[in-house]
């Protein structure tokens, strides 16, 4: 982490790496195949180079990319504080659990803590969430930021996860999320579509994050610290039921309501809750 008032011994991570990138370019290497590091808001952002769908001459192998990361971390002269949080921006690059673990190992050796992975690939999102990292995927408005017309947009394919979200882990997805497992207190699921928790929901769930009030939150055991649907916010009732059963949270004209799944009928008309 770079302080606001650098001392004579402080050095900016991003500027130092820019110099390194320029030197590698002068040696004839492809600048687009270089890992970029940037200090941002007290965390370190690691940008991985894009990956083509087919074999391309000159494209780095994963082993070469991993070695490059280790070299960059060693060359940066440890300009961050111990246990600085790291956000890996993978983009369209496909990462499996082994590669994520190797990234984590390289960062840990440099006293850095991998916490969040930004990806456009569902396979990478599943691998990262299963490994316990927070996952961020681009929202629909980000994908359509170059489009001036407002039109109905299909949601992304559902994200299916078989894991338990621990405290501090967050999942963001521009579609429906189906989680087989629990969401522990301090964990969060944010989706532009519906959220289905095949387990205990004891953290935060935000469905319809892009503003869709028709979205639902379903769980086998509903004990959230907070639930949100579109722009409406609610907390679970303070009195715990004598027996838990599958429940559904949805928006009514009077706000968010929770009902038994067996009795629930999905509303067919748009709702506009009173705030």
Structural class by secondary-structure content: alpha/beta
Order of helices and strands: HEEHEHEHEHEEEEEEEEEEE
Main sheet strand line-up:
6-8-10-12-15-16
CATH class of the largest domain, named Alpha Beta
CATH topology of the largest domain: Transcription Regulator spoIIAA
Number of strand segments: 16
Strand content: 25-35%
Task: Note the gap between the termini.
Answer: 41 Å
**Helix content estimate:** 10-25%
Helix segment tally: 5
- The oligomeric status of these chains comes to single chain
How many separate domains make up the residues?
Answer: 2
Low-confidence runs (pLDDT<50, min 5 residues)? Answer: 1-31, 141-153
Please summarize what this structure is.
This protein is an alpha/beta fold and 275 residues long. It contains five helices and 16 strands.
Task: Give an overview in words.
The protein is of the alpha/beta class and 275 residues long. It folds into two domains: 1-136, Transcription Regulator spoIIAA; 145-275, 3 Solenoid (Pectate Lyase C-like). It has five helices and 16 strands. It has helices at residues 13-26, 62-75, 97-109, 122-130, 140-143, and strands at 36-40, 43-47, 84-91, 112-119, 134-136, 156-162, 170-173, 175-180, 188-191, 195-201, 204-207, 217-222, 226-229, 232-234, 247-252, 255-260. The strands form three sheets. Strands 6-8-10-12-15-16 form a six-stranded mixed sheet, covered by helices on one side. Strands 1-2-3-4-5 form a five-stranded mixed sheet. A five-stranded mixed sheet has the order 7-9-11-13-14, with no helix packed on it. Strand 1 and strand 2 form a beta hairpin. The longest helix is centred in the first third of the chain and has 14 residues, at 13-26. The relative contact order is 0.07.
């Amino acid at each position: 982490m770079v302080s606001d008032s650098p001392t004579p011994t402080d050095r900016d991570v991003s500027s130092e790496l820019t110099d390194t990138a320029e030197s590698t370019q002068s040696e004839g290497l492809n600048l687009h195949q270089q890992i970029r590091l940037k200090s941002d808001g007290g965390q370190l952002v690691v940008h991985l180079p894009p990956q083509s769908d087919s074999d391309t001459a000159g494209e780095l192998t994963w082993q070469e990319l991993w070695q490059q990361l280790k070299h960059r971390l060693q060359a940066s002269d440890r300009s961050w504080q111990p246990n600085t949080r790291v956000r890996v921006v993978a983009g369209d690059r496909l990462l499996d659990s082994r590669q994520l673990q190797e990234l984590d190992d390289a960062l840990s050796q440099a006293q850095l803590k991998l916490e969040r992975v930004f990806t456009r690939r569902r396979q990478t999102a599943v691998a990262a969430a299963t490994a316990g990292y927070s996952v961020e995927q681009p929202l629909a408005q980000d994908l359509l930021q170059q489009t001036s017309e407002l039109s109905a947009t299909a949601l992304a394919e559902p994200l299916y996860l078989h894991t338990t979200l621990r405290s501090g882990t967050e999942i963001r997805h521009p579609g429906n999320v189906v989680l087989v497992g629990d969401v522990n207190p301090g964990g969060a699921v944010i989706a532009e579509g519906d959220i289905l928790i095949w387990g205990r929901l004891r953290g935060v769930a935000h469905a319809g994050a892009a503003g869709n009030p028709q979205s639902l939150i379903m769980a086998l055991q509903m004990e959230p610290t907070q639930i949100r649907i579109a722009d409406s916010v609610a907390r679970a009732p303070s009195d715990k039921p004598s027996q838990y059963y599958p429940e559904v949270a949805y928006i009514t004209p009077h706000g968010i309501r929770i009902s038994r799944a067996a009795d629930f009928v999905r509303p067919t008309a748009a709702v506009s809750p009173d705030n």
